[in-house]
Design brief:
With 387 residues, this protein is an alpha/beta fold. It is built from 13 helices and twelve strands. It has two domains: 7-45 and 281-379, Alpha-Beta Complex (Aspartate Aminotransferase, domain 1); 48-279, 3-Layer(aba) Sandwich (Aspartate Aminotransferase, domain 2). It has helices at 7-10, 16-29, 48-59, 72-86, 101-112, 127-135, 155-161, 184-191, 250-261, 266-278, 280-304, 329-340, 366-384, and strands at residues 35-36, 95-98, 118-123, 139-144, 166-172, 196-200, 223-228, 241-244, 317-321, 342-343, 345-346, 357-361. Pyridoxal-5'-phosphate (PLP) binds at residues 40, 100-102, 126, 128, 172, 176, 200, 202, 228, 230, 236, 241.
């Protein structure tokens, strides 16, 4: 009889970016001038009216539980949002509000995945997907998204890997870490392949060249949609998200949610309701600012010598090929932090094929991004020069 941790728990790998984030924060509190390009969180505080709504909820004594699936006005507002945004009719009882989109992802996967099932996901892709799948004793099967194709998902490549063992195809568009966007045509083809689609749409409102992103909901009912408030309303610390659940899985998700998660924070839900009602101006301003940061960072990274295939369509990340400088992005990220005070995320966090990539978040103001790029340019030029 073993007395150590379970195999299941031990299968979860560390999220390197979190460790680097801690290190960068520590260096900042020690007074070092660190340019933070590693964090996946907006550098804005939440909109003032959202903060006010949260305070008011507390002043009004809203300190009890809400219904497990979330307060009805919030679920109704999310339902209205699907109608307005995607012309999709999603009744509030298909919406479960959660503490961020992370538990929403786990609920969705746990609802359908059996031991030994295969879960298809992009390489590179968000590390939470592989860990959730492993935690459920499923097998991760990765489909490559290639720099030479601007990291765009190929339904053909996904179809080649799909078999009767495939239970879920994970879609994340715009993607963390690449910012690539899945076109409506590809999304429709992926949605028709047969397995469940779990579509993580958390970056949907941060999309630059398109008037809107398309949801998997527009093409199939055989899907779960994961979404949240962290990115687009700059609310990561409130911990608020949701999952849209298909009719056939409502009762299992309800039971898991009631037993394991109970309910999301009441205060956060009150704030989220205000964000959905009045947050669009904030989203537009934030998106415009991100776009100009994206243009700056991509141009400078290319000038320095990193490989960046195109301008990412959405999100707030650039996935840069660092092969000209290093074969090992973990050591490289550590070196850059130590030698230049610029903190970036090693690509290996996002999949086995990404050892030579780094991810940079442009969630830092333009002046600081420019300064960070200047530091990298100076350091890497001197490092490459013959001694
Ligand atoms: C693709 C993606 N999905 C989900 C999350 C989790 O977000 P949260 O739990 O804050 O909603 C993140 C956070 O970085 C993300 O990048």
């Amino acid at each position: 009889m073993g007395d150590g941790p379970s195999k299941r728990a031990s299968s979860v790998t560390p999220f390197l970016v979190m460790e680097l984030l801690d290190q960068a924060k520590l260096m900042t509190t020690r007074g070092e001038d660190i340019i933070r390009l590693e964090a996946g969180e907006p550098d804005w505080t939440s909109p003032a009216t959202v903060i006010e709504a949260g305070k008011k909820a507390l002043d009004d004594g809203q300190t009890g539980y809400t219904p497990s699936a979330g307060m009805l006005p919030l679920r109704e507002a999310i339902s209205d949002w699907y109608r307005a945004r995607y012309r999709a009719e999603i009744p509030p009882d298909r919406i479960f509000v959660t503490s961020g989109s992370s538990p929403a992802l786990l609920l969705a996967m746990a609802a359908v995945v059996e031991r030994g099932d295969e879960v298809l996901m992009a390489d590179p892709g968000y590390p939470g997907y592989a860990n959730a799948a492993r935690f459920l004793d499923a097998k991760c099967v990765r489909f490559p998204v290639l720099e030479s194709e601007e990291f765009i998902y190929s339904a053909d490549r996904i179809a080649e890997l799909t078999s009767d063992r495939t239970k879920v195809i994970m879609v994340n568009s715009p993607s963390n870490p690449t910012g690539a966007y899945v076109s409506p045509e590809e999304l429709e083809r992926i949605s028709s392949l047969g397995p469940w689609v779990i579509s993580d749409e958390i970056y949907h409102e941060i999309c630059y060249e398109l008037d809107r992103c398309h949801s998997a909901l527009e093409y199939t009912d055989h899907c779960f949609i994961v979404n949240g408030f962290s990115k687009r309303y700059a609310m990561p610390g409130w911990r608020l998200g949701w999952v849209v659940v298909p009719d056939s899985c409502l009762s299992v998700v309800r039971n898991m949610n009631q037993n394991f998660l109970l309910a999301a924070s009441t205060v956060a839900q009150a704030a989220g309701l205000e964000a959905l009602r009045n947050g669009e101006e904030h989203v537009r301003r934030m998106r415009d600012e991100y776009r100009s940061r994206r243009d700056l960072i991509v141009r400078r990274l290319r000038e320095i010598g990193f490989g960046v295939p195109g301008y990412p369509a959405g999100g707030f990340y650039v996935f840069a090929n660092a092969t000209p400088f290093s074969e090992d992005s973990v050591a490289f990220a550590e070196e850059l932090l130590r030698e230049t005070g610029v903190s970036v995320t090693p690509g290996v966090d996002f999949g086995p094929a990404c050892r030579t990539y780094i991810r940079l978040s442009y969630t830092t103001e333009r002046g600081r991004i420019a300064e960070g790029m200047d530091r990298l340019e100076r350091y890497l030029a001197a490092r490459a020069a013959p001694r």
